[in-house]
Fold Probable arginine--tRNA ligase, cytoplasmic.
Amino acid sequence: MAEIETFVKRAQQAEVEVEKLFEELEILQRMDLAAKAKVPEELEKLRQENAKLKYRLGILKRATANAEQMGDCAKTPKIQADAPPKDRMKSILNTLIGLFKVATSQAFPAIVDPPCPVSVSTKGGDYQFNGALPIVGLLKAQGVKMAPREIANQIVAQLPEVKNKLVDKVEVAGPGFVNIYLKRSFIEEQVNHILKFGVRPPQNPDGRKRVVVDFSSPNVAKEMHVGHLRSTIIGDSTANLMDFLGHDVLRLNHIGDWGTQFGMLIAHLKDRFPDFVTNSPPIGDLQAFYKESKKRFDEDPEFKKRAYEAVVKLQSHDEVHLKGWNQICDVSREEFQKVYARLNVKNLQERGESFYQDRMNDIVKFLTDKSLLEEDDGRKIMFGNSCPLPLTVVKSDGGYTYDTSDMAALYQRINEEKADWIIYLTDAGQATHFQAIFDCARKAGILTPQTRVDHVGFGVVLGEDKKKFKTRSGETVRLVDLLDEGLKRALDKLTEKEREKSLTPEELRLAQNSIAYGCIKYADLSHNRNHEYVFSFDKMLEDKGNTAVYMLYAYTRICSIGRAANLSAQDVAQARSTETVSLEHEKELKLGKLLTRFPEIILKIADELFLHTLCEFMYEVATTFTEFYDACYCVEKDKATGQVVKVNMGRIMLCDATAQILAKCFEILGLQPVQKM
Ligand SMILES: NC(=[NH2+])NCCC[C@H](N)C(=O)O
């Protein structure tokens, strides 16, 4: 299997490179540069290499096909490594940027790497090129004076006429914008592409990356709180998105499972359950256990002493102490697992702070050797180049800190995991911690520009009273209780609508789960993550506005249109290869255009890491779909008998493409829509 992965990786890299070279070649040809000669040679070599890889991949794949069939198949097949890039979805925005870049370079060869801003148009045209204005300044710097409209005209004159399947017409407007109108035939082609190939990822401009997503990361023996819930939800979706793009994703749960608090926990364990080594201790409520031991630690100096001794024993890997530590971690692990199972969070690998024990020694040595550590009141600290706050790498008692483990983890992820991109999900309060880590890692040469790092922060969760989220009695809300309440509220909602009358008990249960977990996730994901977020079941369960309930209903409604035409799901699936969509009606075209924006939205979100953009897109799809459905008959029925008289298959296919796009969005967000609710 590992061998296959390596082949897949190499084949994909080759694909990306071939495609890149194709593009480059096209540009070079158009720009009529003499440097052409070398490229075809390289291209040919890559092609041959790729053909060989594909051939061997084919053999390996056939050999493992049976094994794979029996394994746990993902719901949507991952993009095939041997799928030519041409089969992926096209980002219209990127294509337009490419076209205008070439045209601008041709019109103004003296400007190196011209800026090329293209955006979706709000009026006049589908997209808009805004590059003329910045060029005014650039020309001026070279002593050339030219009006923006004139610049726009010259650029437009260079747009390739032939071979352009995409642009219908362009017009220079206002102070020098270029309005771009797309060809209907192109939009139709893109929608038909969805029917033929399914919702495929767009071509990644930077190729396949090894992406580490560090999320959830609760702490052993402490409450897994709503902050961890946010991290879990946003992190899981971020990882899903990276998966969809075809990256090689590693989901890591950096749990807090190491540190001095284990001394008091183990000392307390020894007292409470003296036979813990032979009999698994029934700890039950670990939070209460934590509180008890903390109380003793604070009040009883003798206990405190034993707690310190226990830490030393644990760190020297004494068997009995390791056993106790493991038992305590197991109790927490079980609790965390319950939450993950209910939220359907999969493939999250536990790699807690304890994993880095030896590596923390190594990183301290590494930093010491580079003379980067300073003494400060017995501590060893490190300053970066730009961040005002130093890291505490070694405490005065010789112990390590959160900073030390994160430095060690960063080193490990870059050098052992070969990460190209590392994404951390924690509350915004940890922003300075990560700034300092990244800053110091750059200074130490651990982090170079080859690796992208992002701290994806999020705001705090508030209760409906706009105060810190707590239970009525002021306790932290247990996540399992919160999820239970979600389930109860979802069922109330369904019975309020008397859905139990038309759904089977199993359908009702599925709908309840879909709504409960869907509403919690969607409420979180649909808001800008930087903002504070008010946790309110009432708001989440509203069926108007951009809520999970609205979106889930919209989806089931679209899915039901085929049924209204007496078509089974299988009929619809079969029609995808025989029917085509034509977007004659204005509302059909509007919907088609929106669907074809999916690839550019995905690329934007992957770059900026703001998932609410996807929710906004989904909402726009749902409302645009309603406009289409109100204006265009898909199924005509005899008013008197209710019999189907006419089915417009092309339109049913447009419904299907819409449903497929929405299904993919749900999948990325970790929601599980149902066919009926
Ligand atoms: N690599 C990391 N620091 N990941 C995030 C860890 C979050 C930490 N355990 C907390 O509860 O706040």
User: Anything to note?
Assistant: The chain is about 55% helix and 10% strand. The pocket of arginine is lined by residues 214, 217-219, 254, 256, 406, 409, 424, 426 (CB under 6 Å). The radius of gyration is 29 Å. Confidence is low (pLDDT under 50) at residues 25-39, 58-77.
